[in-house]
Amino acid sequence: KARVTSASVAEEEYGTVPHSFVFHRGLVGKNVDQLVTDMRRVMEPYTARALKVRKKNVLKDFVTAAGPLGVTHFLIFTKTETNVNLRLARLPKGPTLFFHVTKYSLIKDVVSSLKRHRMHEQQFSHHPLLVLNNFGLDGMHIKLMATMFQNMFPSINVHTVNLNNIKRCVLLTYDPESKEIDFRHYSLKVVPVGMSRGVKKLMQEKLPNMNKLEDISDLLLQGVNLSESEAEQDGDHNITELPQVYSGRGNMRSQQSAVRLTEIGPRMTLQLVKITEGMGDGNVLYHSIHTKTEEELMEILKRKEARLKEKAERKQKQEQNISLKKQKRDENKMLSYILTVLK
Q: What start-end ranges are recorded for coiled-coil regions in this protein (predicted)?
């Protein structure tokens, strides 16, 4: 009974969180294709990791498949001769944000630059923690970007969240001068503070090699008098008091521990180009390059209304033609029936 209850609760929670499709359109090359795969890792577990994209697929196919699966966001990568582009779309009625990916680094590039990387499968069983920096500035487009990024990831209740489920962190920083967004993806680790390296080694699952030591005190005192360049730098910026027991030996409740971040990639620098209503085909709400006057906006609305009116008239005419054809067909059937009876 408990298993059935927990399964139903998990299924209900799974259906209430945002889900995403990450894919590309057109020819993008090997590197951008790998970037798509890396972004799927970031969005796990609430994304389609093994999503298959065929050349003949159109955007309507993805929208049709998204409804039954509960998908709420699309991340679409495209490539031109000069730019790599990213579209963030909210289903089913938008809005859609268009970005230039001015710079990017893949997971393999970031990991290869580190002496030690922290990336394992258990980190991707839970969604990452989202941190937004500098998104409190004035401007409709900044608020819209912040709302879009927030809605892409499940919300967290700070009073009930299980800290052991937070293994990754996504940091988005907006630079008001360059108007660029830095995207970073980190692995999160919590370690107790106030211990020498020797004590930390003893608290690991694998015991250190002590055959060259005369006494265990040599191990415990090792690393006590390290210089600042050799020691791991912890301070007020990353030391906190744990409200819960955290995984890892020594991380006890109400004890000070250091939160350390290790970048695992991918890394991107994004620049907002425009925001549109709908799935990329609605009114332009914001454009970073072209600005329109009130007269131009009214002219666009008039043209759109004229197209919609023309489409409605065509549909009405088609329905009338279908009705006339059906009426004529029924009359012909009745006439042929009467002739058959008379014969």
A: 291-328
The stretches of 193-281 forming alpha helices (DSSP H) are 197-202, 216-220
Q: What is the pLDDT of residues 25-73, one digit of tens each?
A: 999 999 999 999 999 999 999 999 999 888 888 888 999 999 888 899 9
Per-residue tokens: 188: 């999160």
Please tell me the pTM assigned to this model.
0.73
CA geometry: angle 6, 11, 14, nearest 5 deg: 125
Calpha distance 222→227 (Å, rounded): 12
Structure tokens at 45: 């577990």
Q: How far is CA 129 from CA 45, 73, 114, 163, 186, in A?
A: 13, 18, 22, 11, 10
What tens digit of pLDDT does each residue of 93-150 get? Answer: 889 999 999 999 999 999 888 877 777 888 898 899 999 999 988 888 899 999 999 9
Query: SS3 for 149?
Result: helix
Give residue for tokens 């401007």: 139
Alpha helices in 70-177 (DSSP H): 107-112, 140-152
Please give the Cα distance from 250 to 200 (Å, whole number).
9
Sequence ranges of the domains in the chain: 2-189+265-287, 294-343
